[in-house]
């Protein structure tokens, strides 16, 4: 499974989140039973999903790539995670979920990184993907999140140093994307 050709989204959504406007790109069409919400990392924006989102659509699952606060037209500022303060990406994800539910979506599959304190709160199936020698030293955090998260869950480690979306261009990139897309699109 290679990264799909970068394609523009079919629709641009503006979503209200705690008084801010979140811009999001929808790939595929609604209504749909399940939609993947693709959340970017801190050094990129939703356009980084343009080569990945079509892979979900090809499997019958539309994808919504969300620009967090302060990125690519979204207003406000994304704050750093601290356990004692509300984390804006959580509010933005909730707002995106509510917007999709308002358009008839029944199942939401977020694709995002989360701090280990939050991984304990995620319900449903969970997939954790990481390079075993991640260049930003994220592997211990991913392993901690995996350990803290309740079942059902799956961990996939790849031999490499790539972090975040750089994994998609690594030698194991097709396999990493395949794991993610299959996990999200599989029923049950």
Brief account:
This protein has 188 residues and is an alpha/beta fold. It is 25% helix and 22% strand.
Account of the protein in words:
The protein has helices at 53-58, 88-101, 116-119, 139-148, 173-185; strands at 11-17, 20-27, 34-39, 63-66, 107-111, 126-131, 153-158. By secondary structure, the chain is α/β, with parallel strands linked by helices. The strands form 2 sheets. It has a 5-stranded mixed sheet, with helices on both faces. It has a two-stranded parallel sheet with strand order 6-7. It is globular, with a radius of gyration of 16 Å. The protein starts with 10 loop residues before the first strand and ends with a helix.
Uncertain ranges: none
Quickly give the structural class: alpha/beta
Evaluate the radius of gyration.
16 Å
Q: Output the helix-strand order.
A: EEEHEHEHEHEH
Q: How would you characterize the largest beta sheet? A: 5 strands, mixed
Number of strands: 7
Question: Could you name the key traits of this structure?
Answer:
single chain; about 190 residues; alpha/beta; five-stranded mixed beta sheet; two-stranded parallel sheet; 5 helices
Task: Summarize the SSE layout with pairings.
Layout: E1 11-17, E2 20-27, E3 34-39, H1 53-58, E4 63-66, H2 88-101, E5 107-111, H3 116-119, E6 126-131, H4 139-148, E7 153-158, H5 173-185
């Amino acid at each position: 499974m290679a990264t799909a050709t970068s394609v523009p989204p079919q629709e641009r959504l503006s979503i209200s989140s705690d008084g801010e406007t979140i811009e999001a790109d929808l790939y595929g069409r609604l209504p749909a039973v399940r939609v993947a919400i693709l959340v970017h990392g801190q050094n990129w924006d939703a356009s980084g999903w343009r080569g990945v989102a079509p892979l979900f659509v090809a499997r019958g699952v539309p994808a919504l790539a969300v620009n967090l606060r302060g990125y690519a037209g979204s207003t406000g500022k994304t704050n750093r995670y601290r356990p004692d303060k509300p984390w804006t990406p959580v509010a933005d994800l909730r707002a995106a979920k509510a917007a999709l539910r308002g358009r008839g979506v029944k199942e939401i599959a977020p694709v995002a990184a989360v701090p280990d304190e939050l991984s304990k709160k995620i319900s449903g199936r969970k997939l954790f993907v990481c390079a075993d020698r991640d260049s930003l030293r994220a592997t211990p955090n991913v392993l901690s999140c995996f350990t803290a998260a309740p079942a059902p869950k799956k961990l996939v480690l790849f031999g490499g140093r790539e972090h975040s979306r750089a994994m998609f261009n690594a030698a194991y990139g097709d396999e990493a994307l395949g794991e993610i897309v299959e996990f999200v699109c599989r029923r049950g």
